[in-house]
Automatic annotation (TrEMBL):
A divalent metal cation binds at H73, D75, H107, D212. Residues 1-19 form the signal peptide. This is Ribulose-phosphate 3-epimerase. The keyword Mitochondrion does not apply. Its cofactor is a divalent metal cation; Mn(2+); Fe(2+); Co(2+). Binds 1 divalent metal cation per subunit. Transmembrane segments: none annotated. GO terms for molecular function: D-ribulose-phosphate 3-epimerase activity; metal ion binding. It is an enzyme of class 5 (isomerase). GO terms for biological process: carbohydrate metabolic process; pentose-phosphate shunt. Pathway: Carbohydrate degradation; pentose phosphate pathway; D-xylulose 5-phosphate from D-ribulose 5-phosphate (non-oxidative stage): step 1/1. The gene is LOC111604109. It comes from Drosophila hydei. SUPFAM superfamilies: Ribulose-phoshate binding barrel.
Length: 259
């Protein structure tokens, strides 16, 4: 049985933002579909390859996996939802052709996530995480993702209150709380996003909660203490002299708060 250590007051000096989480008093859920097969949560470390050398993406990705990464976090940007472009399903499919067994999560920072469900499923994606902000019918999108054979992740930007996704959490396999503004790597960690994570963990003890943005050895304790168990780390892992050591450190800190 999962036992969560209650969060304590954070004493770190961290980047501030004007966003403040909103905490709903009730827990409605989407009736269109329901995900009830929740397993006890585990610590998972997923390096973001946003800062990797795309010319050697397969080799760099395999190196991360060999050094202990649990999954690969693939950032997909369309230049519309966020002011940057990365890669699409052809690149993901190419990577899958070289890396057969790894767990792929695509973080869909796109204006129309519904458009890319089938292409990403065909490319071999396991977890399709999309931002709810531009979506009118979240349950319809989650249903299509499930029908395509992928797991569902719901993502929220720093300025999006947690109650926006409250009624959809029961249909999700994971919730991603952004700790930077999406679109660029190498930003400073927003510690004031942790109340969102704390609220999610308190109300959904078996939910996989992911954090992404500025996460590394200096900020992992803050994330783990709040209740995050899926950790996306880009520069801190990809650019590390000893990737295995950093991945192991991140995982051990999270495990320390799960036990």
């Amino acid at each position: 049985m999962f036992t969560f250590r209650a969060p304590t007051l954070l004493s770190l000096t961290l980047t501030s933002t004007t966003a403040s989480p909103t905490y709903p008093k009730t827990r409605p859920h989407c009736s269109a579909c329901n995900n009830t097969n929740k397993m006890p949560i585990q610590a998972k470390i997923g390096p973001s390859i946003l800062n990797a050398d795309l010319a050697n993406l397969a080799a760099e990705s395999q190196k991360l996996l060999d050094n202990g990464a649990d999954y690969l976090h693939l950032d997909v940007m369309d230049g519309e939802f966020v002011p940057n472009l990365t890669f699409g399903h052809p690149m993901v499919k190419c990577l899958r052709n070289h890396i057969k067994e790894a767990f792929f999560e695509t973080h869909m920072m796109v204006q129309n996530p519904e458009q890319w469900i089938t292409p990403m499923a065909d490319a071999g994606v396991n977890l399709y995480t999309f931002h709810v902000e531009p979506v009118k019918d979240v349950c319809n999108v989650t249903r299509q993702i499930q029908e395509a054979g992928m797991k569902v992740g719901l993502a929220i930007k720093p300025g999006t209150p947690v109650n926006v996704i409250e009624k959809y959490i029961d249909v999700a396999d994971l919730v991603l709380v952004m700790t930077v503004e999406p679109g660029f790597g190498g930003q400073s960690f927003m510690g004031d996003m942790m109340p969102k994570v704390e609220w999610l963990r308190t109300n959904y003890p078996n939910l996989d909660i992911e954090v992404d943005g500025g996460v590394g050895p200096k900020t992992i304790d803050c994330c783990a203490k709040a209740g995050a168990n899926w950790i996306v780390s880009g520069t801190a892992v990809v650019g590390a002299a000893d990737q295995r050591e950093v991945i192991s450190e991140l995982r051990n800190v999270v495990k320390g708060y799960l036990n």
